[in-house]
Amino acid sequence: MENNNIKVAILGLGTVGSGVYKLLTQQSEDFIWKVGSKLEISKVLVNNINKQRSLAVDKEILTDKWQEIIDDPEIKIIIEVMGGIEPAKSYILQALKVGKHVVTANKDLLAQYGKELFDTANSQASDLAFEASVAGGIPIIRPLKQCLAGNKIEEILGIINGTTNYILTQMTYGQVSFESALQEAQRLGYAEADPTSDVEGYDAARKLAILASLAFQSRVTLQDVYIEGISNLTLADITYARELGYVVKLIAVAKHSEEGIEARVHPMFIPYTHPLASVNDSFNAVFVKGNAVGEAMFYGRGAGELPTASAILGDVIDVARNIVNNCTGRIACTCFYQSNHKNIGEINTKYYLRLQVKDKPGVLASIAGVFGNHDVSLATVIQKHRNENMAEIVVITDYVKEKHMNDALQIIRGLSIVAEVSAQIRVYSND
Ligand SMILES: NC(=O)c1ccc[n+]([C@@H]2O[C@H](COP(=O)([O-])OP(=O)(O)OC[C@H]3O[C@@H](n4cnc5c(N)ncnc54)[C@H](OP(=O)(O)O)[C@@H]3O)[C@@H](O)[C@H]2O)c1
């Protein structure tokens, strides 16, 4: 058996790397049966070899020298869990070019440089697996590439950032402000000291670029995704959402129609009855609509040491099985098409709007008139008296093109009877 060992190297021994190391060492006997060969950790690459670590790792295999890994022809699988663009990108490309296989969790890298990496893997018939890059422990990459390959995917809706979902859950059910919920998320380790990437939607956008590329077989990069975060959301809007039968979630939307692909991340009103409405705290979910399967939802832990390591090990075992069966590079890059990308102004959606207006007769009629001139029909209107001079108008519209809505709002903002458009949030509807 010893000669048939499949040697692996782990790049990074942080949160995810530690989980991978633990699973590979603690369940090594199981993996022999699952793969047909032993998975042996040859090297673990770290930045600072002298760092105190709570995980006991054999000193012989710990290194800070990439050359020891790339120059070792015995190492067949590289597990990249160091993160960032460089040197991760160069290491992965070098590894693929010498015929090694790569498993990575690096969404930042894939969302930006996916094409270059997959082209290199294809040219060498090497495997480049990335299940952990989207939604942590939830299987979604393999389902899209394999289990659902018989479908035309029409739509993906995802809650794919645990930090923002935790914050929104606190705001909804704890009735706390965005700032308080963020502080609590930071205290619990769900949010980083600099939370920009999560709360402004960039993390979800990177994952959406990967999902949309797989779903529609056409390359979608981070630059193609329209992004709005949750930092401007107020308790007033969360409360109105509940009153109207919705919850507010940060949703990653990917759709494919004849006009092209739309990929966007923004806060959205989700009807209470939709399965995504009950995805709370730091949990993630991806809701997929296919022409054959209909609706399917994938739910679970979107991050964390062992959930993410679970996805990595699934990939490592898959790649190892391919090595044992001499069939690596079997499922190459699936971006066969070059579809158009739809501009955000062209999307059709419903809206929730909240406006501060003068409290006097005829105000509602004037606003409704502007909407009517721009093809915006109003499905729900609530008017609340605020004080002796001001009122608040809350509206849910029917479907309208985003550019028509923005044109209407530009005129409405200029009306002397309107003090402020306080909120404009898209509303999900499947009718
Ligand atoms: N954390 C999660 O729950 C999660 C979930 C899904 C995907 N991911 C992805 O997984 C990857 C790793 O995340 P993580 O949270 O585990 O990161 P992390 O805790 O910050 O760990 C990074 C590790 O990489 C090592 N490293 C960094 N730069 C290096 C360099 N230039 N050369 C050698 N080693 C280097 C560090 O070495 P030292 O220990 O010496 O500092 C550390 O061990 C990222 O791509 C992330 O997006 C993470």
Overview of this structure, please?
The protein is an alpha/beta fold and 431 residues long. The longest helix has 20 residues, at 305-324. The strands form 2 sheets. Strands 7, 8, 9, 10, 11, 12, 13, 14, 15, 16 and 17 form an 11-stranded mixed beta sheet that branches. The chain has 3 domains: 2-137 and 305-324, Rossmann fold; 141-301, Dihydrodipicolinate Reductase, domain 2 (2-Layer Sandwich); 345-427, ACT domain (Alpha-Beta Plaits). The protein has helices at residues 15-26, 28-35, 66-70, 88-97, 107-124, 141-147, 162-174, 178-187, 196-199, 202-216, 235-243, 305-324, 363-373, 402-413, and strands at 6-11, 39-45, 62-63, 75-80, 101-104, 128-129, 153-159, 226-227, 246-257, 260-271, 283-290, 294-301, 348-358, 378-385, 390-397, 400-401, 418-427. The N and C termini lie far apart (59 Å). It binds NADP nicotinamide-adenine-dinucleotide phosphate. NADP nicotinamide-adenine-dinucleotide phosphate is lined by residues 12-17, 45-48, 51, 81-83, 87, 105-107, 132, 136, 303-304, 308.
Topology (elements, then pairings):
Layout: E1 6-11, H1 15-26, H2 28-35, E2 39-45, E3 62-63, H3 66-70, E4 75-80, H4 88-97, E5 101-104, H5 107-124, E6 128-129, H6 141-147, E7 153-159, H7 162-174, H8 178-187, H9 196-199, H10 202-216, E8 226-227, H11 235-243, E9 246-257, E10 260-271, E11 283-290, E12 294-301, H12 305-324, E13 348-358, H13 363-373, E14 378-385, E15 390-397, E16 400-401, H14 402-413, E17 418-427
Parallel strand pairs: 1-2, 1-4, 2-3, 4-5, 5-6, 8-10, 10-17
Antiparallel strand pairs: 7-9, 7-11, 9-10, 11-12, 13-15, 13-16, 13-17, 14-15
Helix pairs in contact: 1-12, 4-5, 5-10, 7-8, 13-14
Bound molecules: NADP nicotinamide-adenine-dinucleotide phosphate.
NADP nicotinamide-adenine-dinucleotide phosphate binds near residues 12, 13, 14 and 15.
